[in-house]
């Protein structure tokens, strides 16, 4: 078999469908976010980034950079091993304490990414708890789906954000059987928010554990940035809260926060934790500084919410279709993979606006979109330029805008 021929054939199919993914070669500028330089095939040009998951610009915050510089100079580049074998530095310990405090939990456990924290924790809980069945929201992230699948535990998928469907499914199960309900707070593509309290009501009624992915909520919601669960005052009702350090906190890594026993259980039995090198101490120090800052400061959250509201208002005025949701995520709907990429290319090449096209399998076919994530550092002039550029790109593709 000509393996390369097979690979090329499969890739050709992605090109034909308009789903082939191209990485934008972006060089971020510390101290000047959301400005960046795009390294194209023929030239370099300045762009404004409108799709970063560095939601609050904390990746360039002076306190974060200072903490990372200090830890780098003191500890060196890498951790030196797995957490179990020489890789646990005091910066890791301090960061886990900050995370546990953020969510009001007894303990926390660090992972190398949010993907790994979901995959490792769900696979460990599902495989090691005898007879466990996992009930998973229909729109859960790929990392949660993969973790559940890898656990080989029985799984049921309940209708998205639907406590009634969850209740029906749990009621049909043996009351004595271990059950885990897994869902997200903010869903990253549509930007909708789960009815966490109602889902907890149902889970508690049937004696089920709850697992909440707060990846797109931490740092952004709640008086100290503890996420939607903190904002709603119900963090204590969740068995596990999972989050990331790579989005609103601006660094990298993932974590869970839970009881001391649960965190120790995952630490002791999860291959995804045991057999991988620890995060560099400088990364842990930067993440801890970011969490500490956002616990004390709500200015970034307030400003971001203002910018999000203004972007939505201007898109409405221009007739550009976008999903209405209660979060910071603004999905501009295109509905065609080829046109979505063409619009994104035009925005980048002709207008210096970088927004990544989102196609299948991240979203269903026919719901392709541009996922805009306004930050507190986008200016009124940035918003004006974005809306004018989108209008021009929609017109060039023959897409009708609302009157």
Description:
By secondary structure, the protein is an alpha/beta fold. Helices cover 43% and strands 15% of the residues. It is built from 14 helices and 14 strands. The strands form three sheets. The chain has a seven-stranded mixed beta sheet, with helices on both faces. α12 runs parallel beside α14 (380-396). The longest helix has 20 residues, at 299-318.
Proportion in helices: 40-55%
Strand content: 15-25%
Radius of gyration: 22 Å
Encode the helix/strand succession as letters.
Answer: HEEEHHEHEHEHEHEHEEHHHHEHEEEH
Question: Could you name the key traits of this structure?
Answer:
single chain; 403 residues; alpha/beta; seven-stranded mixed beta sheet; four-stranded mixed beta sheet; 14 strands
How would you briefly describe this protein structure?
With 403 residues, the protein is an alpha/beta fold. Helices cover 43% and strands 15% of the residues.
Show the helix and strand layout.
Layout: H1 3-17, E1 26-28, E2 35-39, E3 44-49, H2 62-75, H3 90-103, E4 107-111, H4 114-128, E5 133-137, H5 142-151, E6 154-158, H6 163-171, E7 179-184, H7 196-205, E8 209-213, H8 228-231, E9 240-244, E10 254-258, H9 260-269, H10 271-274, H11 281-296, H12 299-318, E11 330-333, H13 337-351, E12 353-354, E13 357-358, E14 369-372, H14 380-396
Parallel strand pairs: 3-12, 5-6, 5-7, 7-8, 8-9
Antiparallel strand pairs: 1-2, 2-3, 4-10, 9-10, 11-14, 13-14
């Amino acid at each position: 078999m000509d393996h390369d021929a097979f690979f090329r054939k499969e890739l050709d199919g992605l090109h034909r469908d308009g789903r082939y993914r191209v990485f934008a070669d972006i060089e971020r500028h510390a101290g000047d976010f959301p400005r960046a330089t795009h390294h194209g095939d023929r030239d370099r040009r300045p762009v404004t980034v409108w799709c970063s998951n560095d939601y609050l610009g904390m990746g360039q915050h002076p306190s974060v950079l200072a903490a990372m510089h200090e830890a780098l100079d003191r500890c060196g580049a890498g951790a030196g091993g797995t957490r179990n074998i020489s890789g646990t530095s005091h910066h890791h310990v301090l960061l886990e304490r900050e995370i546990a405090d953020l969510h009001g939990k007894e303990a926390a456990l660090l992972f190398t990414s949010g993907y790994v924290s979901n995959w490792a924790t769900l696979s460990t809980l599902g495989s090691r708890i005898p007879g466990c069945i996992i009930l998973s929201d229909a729109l859960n992230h790929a990392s949660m789906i993969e973790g559940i699948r890898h656990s080989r535990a029985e799984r049921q998928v309940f209708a998205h954000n639907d406590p009634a469907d969850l209740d029906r499914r749990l009621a049909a199960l043996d009351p004595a059987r271990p059950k885990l309900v897994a869902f997200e707070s903010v869903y990253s593509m549509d930007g909708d928010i789960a009815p966490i309290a109602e889902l907890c009501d149902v889970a508690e009624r049937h004696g089920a554990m709850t697992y909440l992915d707060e990846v797109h909520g931490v740092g952004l919601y709640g008086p100290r940035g503890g996420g939607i669960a903190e904002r709603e005052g119900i963090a204590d009702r969740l068995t596990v809260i999972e989050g990331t350090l790579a989005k609103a906190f601006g660094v990298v890594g993932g974590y869970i926060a839970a009881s001391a026993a649960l965190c120790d259980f995952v630490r002791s039995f999860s291959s995804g934790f045991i057999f991988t090198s620890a995060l560099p101490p400088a990364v842990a120090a930067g993440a801890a500084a970011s969490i500490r800052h956002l616990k004390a400061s709500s200015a970034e959250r307030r400003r971001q919410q203002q910018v999000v509201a203004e972007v939505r208002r201007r898109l409405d005025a221009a007739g550009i279709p976008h999903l209405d949701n209660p979060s910071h995520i603004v999905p501009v709907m295109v509905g065609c993979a080829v046109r979505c990429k063409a619009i994104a290319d035009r925005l980048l090449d002709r207008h210096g606006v970088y927004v990544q096209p989102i196609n299948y399998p991240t979203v269903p076919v026919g719901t392709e979109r541009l996922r805009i994530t306004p930050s507190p550092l986008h200016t009124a002039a940035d918003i004006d330029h974005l809306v004018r550029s989108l209008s021009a790109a929609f017109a060039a593709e023959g897409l009708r805008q609302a009157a």
